[in-house]
Design brief:
Helix 6 packs across helix 7. A hairpin with a 6-residue loop joins strand 1 (62-64) and strand 2 (71-75). Helices cover 12% and strands 19% of the residues. It has a 22-stranded mixed β-sheet, with no helix packed on it. A 6-stranded parallel β-sheet has the order 16-18-20-22-24-26, with no helix packed on it. It has 7 helices and 41 strands. It has a domain at 228-392: Alpha-Beta Horseshoe (Leucine-rich repeat, LRR (right-handed beta-alpha superhelix)).
């Protein structure tokens, strides 16, 4: 019994020893991979050092098992320098990793493999489940090598040089990859018959976009009985598509036929796919017919319908191009008909589609008012009606608690901002810019506790900026420019966090554009974790149809109006109060906005000096204070703003020497300072006076001691008064001493009085 306990203890200690760092033979193998990927003279993977004490599990490209300490993931995406030329895969370098699960080799100029060292040798790695070979230069022969890896669950050959499918014979069908669940063959030159070699009974996600597949592709899909998502966008599918050809795909829930030349769908009532399909994408079709639109009503189980970026024209009425038959899709959750040439009124029957979470009808020519029927949509979360010709007021009944993102910008909405969103604790984005809204900004704006993006640019708002705005602790982007606001800038704005929108990202639906099947790939990556593979039973559909919606915000910074969308939006924060009638001094408290990236106070009536506290805006990239009535000197402390790319104080009343031309201030040209005649120093073509006043008087209006301009006004007034008194005394003394001058003086006075 004692020996058994001792043996157990030794095994525990041995296991613990292995977990202290990576295995020696695996560290040596990784260093050999480094040499190979850098051949002949590359310098990548600098942290991979040949040191006995080095722990390869700490290298960012490597992940090790917490139980055994062995390498389970190698991520070498875009590691080889492209200037080194082609790279040939050597399987023997990867065989020491007995527990390897995930291998990423995307974007490394791979064109083939060393003789007898092809991918088929990786069959010895029984745990290998994820292989990413995207953005390389393999030809179609790679498939015959990979089919010998039966443990694979995820395979990406996106953007290689795969062409045709004639290389295969019946013995080389990919059916041997019977565990494969995700296959990405997009951005190649494959034709439709490739599907005849994909008899993969467990495949759930197939991405074939940007290939040469034609209508015959659909007839080859019979061997994919487990398929849930099929992406055939941007291929050569033309004319009429008979949906019955997909009936063999009994589990299909997502179908993407976007960017083809389809003009109609055949949807007989006995078509099985009509009852199962949840997501249908038909974006960017060359042309689209009325019959196609009417046939969509047959998809009774559809949750997401995306018809954006098409070329059809017509009115959105019961008799027009968007027929009322769409209202029969009672399960619809997301309707996207954006970027078309649609005209007419907003359909009132949308108010009867009670499951709608998102409505996207932006970039059309829709007219009229927003129907009050929209108020029936109790669970509505996303509304984008931007860039239309909508008029009237915003319905006050839209204050639904679940609405999260509202885009009504670039319309003709008018009147005061009603209580439409009053006390909404879920609203994250509110874009009402470029309308004709009037009256004051309501005080209830401070009740929108979750608000992160507030855009009121280009309206006719007047009055003061409400101090209740300072209650919006999550605000990251605020644009009130081009209105008629007056009064001072609230000091309490400096208390707002004004960080990026990263903290709000969970409330946003944007997941970028690199996904397969409506978020399936994202769901797969999270559940199986291409970072550390978990149980495949967690690989389920992404049930959120709003994952297709990508947030977009237009904001002016660095003198340009830019669109921020997707993940980039997570890093942006800014305030734009330009082109108003704001007065008073710039609050010192604005210096507390340490995470802000853009601040624009230009074209107002601001007075006083530039606060030295603005030097604390360490993240600011654009600072515009031009076209105001600011005076005094430009604080020299501003040269500490190392992120500053655009700076302007043009057309003010500033004086004194410009800050030293170093760091970012060495890049600013004369246009940043023009319109200030009392400024001097480079880059202006005006040198500063060498003999400046040496008066010890200081300007302390900002709580900071700094020198004033060229002339000390207090000293000037004292000197003038003393000189005046001396002159008068001098005249009196001369008249008292010299009688002749005294007589002449009185005679002159007498003549002057009598002559009037």
């Amino acid at each position: 019994m004692g020996r058994l306990c001792l043996l157990v203890m030794m095994l525990v200690l041995l296991n613990g020893y292995c977990c202290l760092g990576c295995w020696k033979q695996e560290r040596i193998a990784l260093l050999q991979i480094k040499v190979d990927i850098n051949f002949p003279n590359g310098t990548s993977l600098r942290r991979w050092v040949d040191n006995e004490t080095a722990n390869c599990c700490d290298w960012k490209e490597i992940e090790c098992s917490v139980d055994t300490g062995r390498v389970i993931q190698i991520s070498l995406n875009e590691t080889r320098d492209w200037s080194l030329g082609d790279w040939y895969f050597n399987a023997s370098l990867f065989l020491p990793f007995k527990e390897l699960r995930t291998l990423h080799l995307s974007g490394n100029s791979l064109v083939g493999w060393v003789e007898n060292e092809g991918f088929e040798r990786l069959s010895m790695l029984m745990n290998l489940q994820v292989v990413d070979l995207s953005y390389n230069n393999f030809n179609i022969s790679i498939l015959s090598r990979l089919l010998r890896l039966p443990s694979l669950k995820y395979l990406s050959l996106q953007s290689n040089n795969l062409e045709g499918s004639t290389h295969f014979n019946s013995s080389e069908r990919l059916s041997r990859l019977n565990n494969l669940e995700v296959l990405d063959l997009s951005l190649n030159n494959l034709n439709g018959s490739i599907l005849s070699f994909l008899s993969l009974s467990n495949l759930e996600i197939l991405h074939l976009s940007y290939n040469w597949s034609d209508n015959s592709t659909l007839s080859f899909a019979g061997g994919l009985s487990s398929l849930k998502s099929l992406d055939l966008s941007a291929n050569k599918i033309k004319g009429t598509v008979d949906m019955r050809e997909l009936d063999a795909l009994t589990n299909l829930e997502v179908l993407d036929l976007s960017s083809n030349e389809i003009d109609s769908l055949v949807t007989p009532k006995d078509t099985k796919i009509l009852k199962k399909l949840k997501v249908l994408r038909l974006r960017g079709l060359k042309k689209i017919s009325r019959n196609l639109l009417q046939s969509l009503g047959a998809f009774s189980s559809l949750k997401t319908l995306n018809l954006g970026l098409n070329t059809f024209e017509g009115t959105i009425t019961a008799e027009g191009m968007i027929p009322k038959s769409l209202s029969l899709m009672t399960s619809l959750v997301l309707l996207d008909v954006s970027s078309n040439n649609l005209t007419g009124m907003l359909p009132r029957w949308l108010g009867n589609m009670t499951y709608l979470l998102g409505i996207v009808m932006s970039k059309n020519h829709l007219q009229g008012s927003i129907p009050t029927q929209f108020c029936k949509l109790d669970i509505l979360e996303f509304v984008d009606l931007s860039e239309n010709n909508l008029s009237g007021s915003i319905p006050s009944c839209l204050n639904r608690s679940r609405i999260t993102h509202v885009y009504l910008n670039k319309n003709r909405l008018e009147g005061p901002l009603t209580r439409a969103f009053y006390n909404n604790s879920s609203l994250v984005t509110l874009d009402l810019s470029h309308n004709n809204l009037t009256d004051t900004i309501p005080k209830w704006i401070g009740s929108l506790s979750a608000l992160s993006i507030l855009l009121l640019k280009g309206n006719q708002f007047k009055g003061r900026i409400p101090i209740q705005l300072c209650h919006l602790n999550r605000l990251s982007i605020m644009d009130f420019s081009h209105n008629n606001l007056f009064g001072p800038i609230p000091h309490c704005l400096g208390k707002i966090n004004m960080g990026s929108t990263t903290g709000q990202s969970n409330a946003m639906w944007s997941i970028g554009e690199s996904y397969i099947g409506g978020g399936y790939l994202v769901s797969y990556m999270e559940s199986t974790s291409l970072i550390g593979l978990h149980s495949s039973s967690l690989m389920i559909l992404n049930e959120d149809p709003l994952s297709e919606v990508q947030l977009q915000v237009e904001f002016t910074t660095k003198r340009n109006s830019l669109l921020y969308n997707g993940s980039i939006l997570n890093y942006m924060s800014g305030i734009d109060l330009s082109c108003n009638q704001l007065a008073g001094e710039i609050p010192l408290e604005l210096g507390n906005l340490s995470d802000i990236r853009a601040l624009n106070l230009s074209h107002n009536n601001l007075t006083g000096t530039i606060p030295v506290t603005l030097s604390k805006l360490k993240q600011v990239e654009s600072l515009d204070l031009s076209y105001n009535n600011l005076n005094g000197r430009i604080p020299t402390q501003l040269i500490e703003l190392n992120a500053l790319a655009v700076f302007s104080v043009a057309h003010n009343n500033l004086s004194g020497a410009l800050p030293e031309r170093k760091a970012q201030f060495g890049t600013f040209e004369e246009t940043s300072y023009e319109g200030n005649p009392l400024l001097c120093g480079p880059p202006l073509h005006k040198s500063c006076t060498k003999n400046r006043a040496t008066s010890p008087m200081r300007n302390v209006s900002n709580g900071e001691v700094e020198e004033d301009g060229f002339v000390d006004m207090d000293a000037f007034y004292i000197t003038f008064v003393v000189s005046y008194i001396i002159v008068l005394l001098g005249i009196a003394i001369v008249l008292y001493i010299n009688p002749y001058w005294r007589q002449a003086w009185f005679y002159f006075i007498e003549v002057y009085i009598t002559s009037r």
